[in-house]
TrEMBL record:
<dbReference type="InterPro" id="IPR047057">
    <property type="entry name" value="MerR_fam"/>
</dbReference>
<keyword id="KW-0238">DNA-binding</keyword>
<protein>
    <submittedName>
        <fullName>MerR family transcriptional regulator</fullName>
    </submittedName>
</protein>
<dbReference type="InterPro" id="IPR009061">
    <property type="entry name" value="DNA-bd_dom_put_sf"/>
</dbReference>
<dbReference type="InterPro" id="IPR000551">
    <property type="entry name" value="MerR-type_HTH_dom"/>
</dbReference>
<dbReference type="Pfam" id="PF13411">
    <property type="entry name" value="MerR_1"/>
</dbReference>
<feature type="domain" description="HTH merR-type">
    <location>
        <begin position="1"/>
        <end position="69"/>
    </location>
</feature>
<dbReference type="GO" id="GO:0003700">
    <property type="term" value="F:DNA-binding transcription factor activity"/>
</dbReference>
<dbReference type="GO" id="GO:0003677">
    <property type="term" value="F:DNA binding"/>
</dbReference>
Amino acid sequence: MYTIGEVADILGLSTHTLRYYEKENIIFPARDASGDRRYNDSHINWLQFVIKLKETQMPIAKIKKYASLVLEGDHTTLDRLSLLEQHKHVIKQQIRTLKAADDMLEHKIAAYKDYINKRE
């Protein structure tokens, strides 16, 4: 079992973020006799997934929805699948947008280098 500080260090999050995720019903850590939060490896794995969803711009409301579907049980499997497929579509669009931006920057950088080389 891990303390909130240990989990924050492991995941590179703040304790504030972990408390926020708990407040938003995204994570449900256990509590010890003193009432302190205790996380296990399953919590860490779940939070790593949540972090990836956030990194790929999934809104917190959708992460909350996904978390609530998980808690509801197996009868929500199709809904969870649909939510993740929709997000994968968004990610693919992000990739296309980033690729186009990268191509444009490569072209602009090459033009500047060419200009500089011609001046020398």
